[in-house]
Amino acid sequence: MSVEVDVKTLEIDGHEVSASAGQTILAVARENDIPIPTLCHIDGLSDVGACRLCLVEIAGSNKLMPACVATVQEGMVVSTNTERLQKHRRLILEMLFAERNHICSVCVSNGHCELQSLAQEQGVTHVRLPYRYPELPVDVSHERFTADHNRCILCTRCVRVCAEIEGAHVWDVMGRGIDSLVITDLHDEWGKSSCTRCGKCVQVCPTGALFDKSKIGSEHPKYPDFLPYLNLMREAQ
Amino acid sequence: MTVEELDQIAISVRQENAKYDYEVNVCMDLACVSQGSDKLRDALVQAAEAAGKKVLIRRTGCMGPCSHGPLVRVDPDDVLYRKVHAGHAGQIVSSLGGAPVAELQCDLNEHFGSQVRVVLENAGYIDPEKIDDYIARDGYKALLTVLTEMTPNGVIHRITESGLRGRGGGGYPTGLKWGTVAKAAGNLKYVVCNGDEGDPGAFMDRSVMEGDPHRVIEGMAIAAYAVGASKGFIYVRAEYPVAVSRLTTALREARRRGLLGNDICGTPFSFDVEIRLGAGAFVCGEETALIASIEGRRGTPKPRPPYPAVSGLWGKPTLINNVETYANIAPIVRNGGKWFANMGSERSKGTKVFALTGKIANTGLVEVPMGIKLRQIIEDIGGGVPEGHTFKAVQTGGPSGGCIPAELLDVGVSYDALLKMGSIMGSGGMIVMDDTSCMVNVARFFIEFCMTESCGKCIPCRSGTAQMHTLLTRICNGTGTMDDLQLLEELCATVKETSLCGLGQTAPNPVLSTLKYFRNEYIEHILHKRCPAGVCSMQAAVEVLA
């Protein structure tokens, strides 16, 4: 018995591309080497559409759609890099920098940071918004890792990887709005939490918010690409 | 329960009421109770006993003009008394059968004259805790008609024909929504009533839930029959304890009468409703966040599609409507879709309940046909701005809405017209402001509300509203610059276009609309360090200059 695959064709930034039904715009764009910036998305985890950097324009609609969750439609015409989108992306990145205390020069992720790279890519040369300079805690209670909330962008990758892949659900979000904070267990110290010490959250963290204590200076590249392979192997079992 | 039994209940209620010579209705809504209408009711009961008169003292839901409360209406003479206190009880009882008490009587003909009551038709006439009172006023007749005479498609057709649009704010056509849920695949579907009314200054849904809870339940049951659902949830915010207790009583009474439960009225249709309490988050009025909250998860919105009509509560097709939308269903079924469509304007049919507050003579609840001019609502029904001050703006739609200036008051109220003016219909809050309000400060107030109510999931809403608040605070205390104003406008555009849910997408509206109509006030604050309304102290500017 043959399985019918529903194929859609669409246009992204002038390129004719094909996709299978149910694929997201982001997945199709990446398959075709069309870059769309993302922060909260990571291959292998569920998508939440929170960072709003992957918003794209779709012809015929004034509403911007998040490419990470919007699925392809036949004949869709997608633009991923218009002036309007660039402007929004730069301001969103500025908002992220001004929200907490992101000081690249003293960060373990300097040079390996997704936020930093995105800002460079998108041409954010300076931040016009007033810095908020919030006073935030640094949790060093864990024997292997540190959580520095000054560098957290609340992408919730740690929350998702812990719940969906490790199955421990140690991380979650506390509070709301500008006062939101990722916490371990019921706001216990990370070192005293039910953490399994697998370190997946550290590897998927896009900034220097979660880092390995054994790394110093900016020698802390992260390796978040293990998830799709891990998922594949698990499914095969 | 059959239609005949329903009629029998109505007849017996009327016979019971006929034993009394007079009916004294006491408004027991929060505003009136807070001024002692509960003591007044007790005093009236005692006074009636002492005088030996046959008087039915009835507690009712909100009668409307709250600023005149506590309110009492005496039937059959239809005399309305205002600002009545327990001390007046004797006077009122002894006046029965004679001339009304002149000093308490209030003349609100103009206030009630231009109103059309559909949703509020029972408000002030029934005891919200007595199902029989509701039945005596044609209650549950629509449900029985639907169950015994109509197909689900027929019900949806009637709702579509009526042109009813969602009363929660978005204005999505109700019939279309019902049709989508009805067509969605799956045997298990849910019906949800959104009673998470959180706009500052809005209390329409609370009054309906407290004053006429069965109307909401009947609307939900009809909706459930139409879309094929057997389970319903009413999501009420925990800040409305009276609404919760009235709804709980109403659900119990409806089950007792066999109007909820299995095989309702001998038909194969089964339906029951549970109440779920919100925990004080404004964002839970957003439908995907509301679903998350009912499921017991953190109340944050999700990107749509998939829409709840396809994948809602526990992934099942779910119909979510606002309290006021459900409250319109029974009258539409009883009187027909055309009857409803004859009211209102071209694309906004029927009536709308507004909560009038702010600098206005008659604050309270009003129900007007769509298309009515704002001026009529404010000046005739609302009694205008009190002496000595002039009208400046009216804020509609809560924190998601905008401020409409005096020169636009002759526009008719409709979903589209309000949107065009930079505001929204919203759930129906209407805050009137006079010359003592500083529009920059008003914008700052609403942005502060959105900032503290943002769930924090998406960046534009979480960080953008906080940044806007900082910039507006600067302008309000006199340290703002023209660069800040430009940045503020850029933030408005990005937050509006990129936020995940309705909260963020509409949060800039109060800023955008005040910038559009009152830009000079912003300029005065920035360039001349002066607040035209005299509200902002400009303290920081004085310190900087010193």
SSE inventory with pairings:
The complex is a heterodimer of chains A (237) and B (546).
Chain A: E1 7-12, E2 15-20, H1 25-31, E3 55-58, E4 65-66, E5 77-79, H2 83-99, H3 114-121, E6 138-139, E7 145-148, H4 157-166, E8 171-174, E9 181-184, H5 200-204, E10 210-212, H6 226-236
Chain B: H1 3-18, E1 22-27, H2 30-33, H3 37-51, E2 55-60, E3 72-75, E4 79-81, H4 89-95, H5 109-113, H6 131-136, H7 141-149, H8 152-162, H9 174-183, E5 190-195, H10 204-211, H11 213-227, E6 231-237, H12 241-256, E7 272-278, H13 287-294, E8 318-322, H14 323-335, H15 337-341, E9 351-358, E10 364-369, H16 374-381, E11 391-396, E12 402-405, H17 415-420, E13 429-434, H18 439-453, H19 459-476, H20 482-498, H21 502-506, H22 509-517, H23 519-527, H24 539-545
Parallel strand pairs in B: 1-2, 5-6, 5-8, 6-7, 9-13
Antiparallel strand pairs in B: 1-3, 3-4, 9-10, 11-12, 11-13
Helix pairs in contact in B: 3-4, 7-11, 7-14, 8-9, 8-11, 10-11, 10-12, 11-14, 18-19, 19-20
Explain how this protein is built:
The complex is a heterodimer of chains A (237) and B (546). Chain A is of the alpha+beta class. Chain A has two domains: 7-81, Ubiquitin-like (UB roll); 86-236, Alpha-Beta Plaits (2-Layer Sandwich). In chain A, 24% of the residues lie in helices and 16% in strands. Chain A contains six helices and ten strands. In chain A, the strands form three sheets. Chain A has a five-stranded mixed sheet, covered by helices on one side. A three-stranded antiparallel sheet of chain A has the order 6-7-10. In chain A, a hairpin with a 6-residue loop joins strand 8 and strand 9. In chain B, helix 8 (152-162) packs antiparallel against helix 9 (174-183) and helix 19 packs antiparallel against helix 20. In chain B, the strands form three sheets. Chain B has a five-stranded mixed sheet. By secondary structure, chain B is an alpha/beta fold. The model of chain B has no long low-confidence stretch (mean pLDDT 94). The N and C termini of chain B lie far apart (79 Å). Chain B has helices spanning 3-18, 30-33, 37-51, 89-95, 109-113, 131-136, 141-149, 152-162, 174-183, 204-211, 213-227, 241-256, 287-294, 323-335, 337-341, 374-381, 415-420, 439-453, 459-476, 482-498, 502-506, 509-517, 519-527, 539-545; strands spanning 22-27, 55-60, 72-75, 79-81, 190-195, 231-237, 272-278, 318-322, 351-358, 364-369, 391-396, 402-405, 429-434. Chain B has four domains: 3-112, Glutaredoxin (3-Layer(aba) Sandwich), CATH 3.40.30; 132-340, NADH-ubiquinone oxidoreductase 51kDa subunit (Rossmann fold, 3-Layer(aba) Sandwich), CATH 3.40.50; 351-432, Ubiquitin-like (UB roll); 439-545, Up-down Bundle (de novo design (two linked rop proteins)), CATH 1.20.1440.230. The chains are: A alpha+beta (237), B alpha/beta (546). The interface between A and B is medium-sized, with 34 and 34 residues.
